[in-house]
Amino acid sequence: MTTSDQLSTYLARAGLGDRVAFSALYQASSAKLFGLCLRILKDGALAEEALQEIFVKIWHKAASYDASRGTALAWLVTVARNHAIDRLRQLRAAEARQAGEAGSEVDRLASADPGPAEQLARKQGRAQIELCLDELDSARAEAVRLAYFEGHDYAELAARFAVPLNTMRTWLRRSLLALRECLTR
Amino acid sequence: MTGQTDDTLEDGGDPDDLLAAEYALGLLEPAEARDFERRLEHDPALRDRLGDWQERLAQMADTVEPVVPPAILRRRIERRIFGRPVPLWRRMGLGLGPALLAATVVVVVALAGLQLGWRAMVPPVAPFAAALTATAAVTPAPEGPVATVALDPEAGEITVSGLTLPPAPGHAHELWLIAAGSAPVSLGVVPPGPPVTIALPDALRPAVGPGTLLAISDEPAGGSPTGQPTGPVLAAGPITSS
After folding, report:
1. How far is it, in rounded angstroms, from Cα B11 to Cα B94?
2. Helix residue ranges, H only, chain B
């Protein structure tokens, strides 16, 4: 098990051009980041392509990591999530341009339904944030998950939940405040 | 702008905190996101709020099962970043051999001379030392260390010797200490040439020891303007007990 301190050291050293540290960083974090890419992109080939881009970005951006500002893991997860979401949004935009083709690949990609493996994972060893999401109304918790894992904006979320945009905005903000409160408890 | 509507205030939500959360999730409109980024540049409190939200939201990844990626990915990534290694004999075979060899000989001879000179002058009494070797940013790759650093936390002194890489005009070399789990801390600009002794700040004394790394980066004359390395790292090496 890699400790938070070790991960932070690897990242700081990778920022100074240390290839061995980069290798150790990959070893310690690639499974987590690849799992995240698969969750977001829902396709092995897309997730593999995304993971490559993510680690190239990590190498180039590592020098900007500031350990006093947050954990290395959160930094890595942020880089990975944002890249995978940008990719998903690109795919959705390309799909929107070719509108009219029903039952498309991207509809499947954008499906919010967790796969069986993830449902099982959710039942076992639940993360703290998952327990906090459980405290929310289930539709609101789903809106937070959709914003994080599908990168939906307010308009898309409002359409999905068939509520006015301002209502959606209020929902999500209240959910985020409740999450913050629960996580600091 | 968002954040000023009655619904957020009625919730007791701090508009900046909500804005940071929305930015972290990518929920802001492009114009709002650009405004937010402009504010981030000169608002440390806002940066902290964003950092806190990134930390919280990163926990969403804890709800996802890790999956080990195919082994070939790692090789592809390393090839993308570091390039394909070219064997020395092939480079020599391209006709660059004599020049490279001559350059290497010059560097090795210069290095040996400097190191011998230093060893004769300064007895190695410091309890810790680091031999810094060149990174891939230095071509042709020098043989052996490009600088030797002796560290004496008791005396609060660091001596850098045998620095063989001359900085380009308008540039300087800056020495950094990177303790486990910490961002690099500058130890100052180091000139090439004869050994130089620099003061070790008291706060850094506990960090001197095995597990801490020293590095030299290429910076503008006078050193990094940001307090963190801005240019390529030219050499690095771990601190060891001497």
Report:
1. 71
2. 6-10, 15-25, 30-42, 44-58, 71-82, 88-91, 97-121
Give residue B34's pLDDT.
95
Instruction: Give the span between the Cα atoms of A95 and B133, in whole angstroms.
Output: 50
Helix (H, G, I), strand (E, B) or coil at B142: coil
AA identity, residue B92: M
Whole-complex ipTM: 0.86
List the helix and strand counts (H, then E) for chain B: 7, 9
Does B131 or A102 have the greater pLDDT score?
Answer: B131
Q: Any residues with CB less than 8 A from the CB of A155 and at least 6 apart, and which?
A: A165
Q: Which amino acid is at B16?
A: D
Q: SS3 for A45-110, per residue?
A: HHHHHHHHHHHHHHHHHHHHCCHHHCCHHHHHHHHHHHHHHHHHHHHHHHHHHCCCCCCCHHHHHC
Question: Nearest CA to CA, how far is A137 from chain B (Å)?
Answer: 17
Rounded to the nearest 5 percent, the helix, strand and coil shares of chain B are 40, 20, 35
Using CA atoms, how far residue B107 sits from A109, B94, B151, B214, in Å, is: 56, 21, 25, 22
CA distance B6 to chain A (A): 10
Per the CB < 8 Å rule, is A77 touching B67? no
Confidence band, pLDDT 50/70/90 cuts, at residue A31: very high
Query: What mean pLDDT is predicted for residues A68-75?
Result: 92
CB pairs under 8 A between A and B: 188
Taking alpha carbons only, the member of B157, B158, B192 closest to residue B172 is B192
* Residue that has been written with the tokens 């500058």 in this structure: B186
Buried-state track B100-114, b at ≥16 Cβ within 10 A, e below 16: beeeeeebeeebeeb
Residue position matching structure tokens 């092995």: A44
Q: How far apart are CA B194 and CA B33, in angstroms?
A: 51
Share of chain B above pLDDT 70, in %: 77
Highest mean pLDDT among A136-145, B9-18, B72-81, B96-105: A136-145
Residue B240 tokens read as 């060891």
Per-residue pLDDT, averaged over B50-62, amounts to 95
Q: pLDDT per residue over A37-62, tens digit each? A: 999 999 999 999 999 999 999 999 99
CB A30 to CB B7 under 8 A?
A: no
